[in-house]
Amino acid sequence: MRLSSEKARPAARCAFMPGLLALLAFTPIAGADVPDAIEAGASQNYFYVEPSYNGTNIVLFGSIDRERLNGHKFDVAITIRGPVKPMTIWKKDRRAGLWVNSESLTFEDVPTYYALLSTRPASEIASIEQRKSHELGPDVLNLEPKDSPKLEAQSLDEFRDALIRLRKRAGLFVENGDSAIEFFGTRLFRSSVFLPPAAGAGLYRAKFYLLQDGKVIGEAASQIRLNKIGIEARLSFAALNYPWLYGAMAVLLAAAIGGGASVIFRRV
Amino acid sequence: MLIYLPIAELPVNALVMLAMGGAVGFLSGMFGVGGGFLLTPLLIFAGVPSAVAVATGANPLIASSITGTIAQYRRKNVDIKLGLYLLAGGAAGAFVGVKIVKYLRQTGQIDLTVSLLYVVFMGIVGGLMLVESLRAIRKQRKGKPTPMRRAAQHNWIHKLPFKTRFPTSKLYISAIPAIVLGVVVGLLSGVMGVGGGFIVVPMLIYFLRVPTNVAIGTSLFQIIFVSAITTLFQAVWNHTVDMALALLLMTGGVIGAQGGAVAGQRLRAEQLRFLLAILVLAVGLRLGIGLFAPSDLYSLTRAEA
Q: How many angstroms separate the CA atoms of A256 and A262, rounded?
């Protein structure tokens, strides 16, 4: 466990106190005076997709109740899940010399984004059962194939592994178990992760886990909303809901630009 | 300068897109083709999903073909009657083409089909143009005047029924080949996001014996409508037209087209065709690599409802 030095503590605490106080004010406390073993939130709960949007940094922070830990070693893990969408994974096969998409498998509820941030690699901080039940790590995500395919278990795993690999490569599944959580003093922690632009708009859920001896002993949750606004929102709304109007606008815009150009450049 | 595209849902460099539109516009001004056959592959190389690239590729063609048609109309190179016949077929072809795209997306074959069509068409068109332009350049070097190929007086196309007079083209031929040609172009426009100029112009010249200048003008005229119909159909059925991206491409395109028209007058016709042939073959080759040596056996798409 990496802890900041005693000297750095007051400064760090000062910087985070206002945010933390604000957070505590909005966090319902379970049981009148018994604080949760872990309390946490995001520094900003709303982000907007504007024309200049190029991904955003999500900063998460919280505190742990030291008294519950009995001085033993502990770990903190955070998962962030984006909105889910059904996704199809295709496998290419060589046919007549060409590589053609042949087999496919559709998974329901694939998060558009998933991140695991933890003090140590997932396999070292929790048992496989605990990891599966809390979806700690991209490899234990509960990805269910749509309409039970005739595939064998082995090839199901093959598709699932390929999906995870492709999402990781695109930066949309993230696993950082190398001191991804920074501690300020003994109680406060902070972590941040970059949400790439391809992750898309929607509701993101962050879950915070306090682990000891491979078991989850405390949980907290928070939400982050990423919304399209202004021109981005209007265009994608129109494209989906008023497709005829949107198409006609696209045609008229092009016609105006083409016609306008030939008037402007006539004498050039 | 990055701009987040609302439909493609990814940020692109606005200057790169303006430059891309400008380069394609430059070429279309220089060679008198719409440039769609270069725009769509370039968008795909830039990381735009192919469904969005195909749908959005058709949109800027409206602008460039209107500008081109107006310029050609002033020189009396547009055969409106012939254009309308092409168009009748083109509307039907575009309708079917956009439906095919929807089906191909559902069956996962869209990328392959688009790449394959590009490789085949670009290979054929680029190859023929390369051979022809090299022959012309060689003859030029020997000092002989380049003879225009004499059109045969009649071929089987002239024996078809429903003969119609096309005064601007000085032709009296059947309406059937014009409509069939229109259907083919509409299909290509729907599936590949191209205007089809690179197919229509040679077809009009070699099969229907339309004079070269009129073939270029008439092709541009019908591309306006085919690309407008395609844009509308893509927007309605596939929801994949990205207006923000189209605006960037069009802005670059109209500026580039003016520069291209000036540059086109300074180069010799066979040299122009040689350069275009090299370009067409290069893009076709780049797309072909993916068909024979994919970078990954697996690919991920949004599931279709």
A: 10
- Beta-sheet strand order (sheet of A215-228): A46-49, A215-228, A202-212, A75-81, A114-118, A173-176
Chain A residues lying within 8 Å of B11, measured CB to CB: 53-55, 197
DSSP at A96: T
Are B6 and A232 inside 8 Å of each other by CB?
yes
Q: What is the pLDDT of residue B16?
A: 92
Picking from B1, B4, B302 by the largest number of A CB atoms within 10 A of its own CB, the best residue to mutate is: B4
Report the 10 Å Cβ neighbour count for B208.
Answer: 22
Give the rounded percent of residues in chain A with a pLDDT score beyond 90. Answer: 30
More confident residue, A33 or B262: B262
Closest partner CB to A262 (pick from B70, B111, B246): B70
Average pLDDT, integer, range B8-33: 84
**Mean of pLDDT over chain B:** 80
Check if the beta carbon of residue B285 is closer than 8 Å to that of residue B60.
no
Distance CA B186, CA B184 (A): 5
When computed from its CA atoms, the radius of gyration of chain A, rounded to whole angstroms, is 24
Residue in chain A lying closest to B63 (CA): A258
Residue-wise pLDDT tens digits, A6-44 = 333 444 444 444 444 444 444 444 444 556 788 888 888
Can you tell me the ipTM of this complex? 0.81
Residues of B in contact with A265 (CB under 8 A): 67, 254, 258
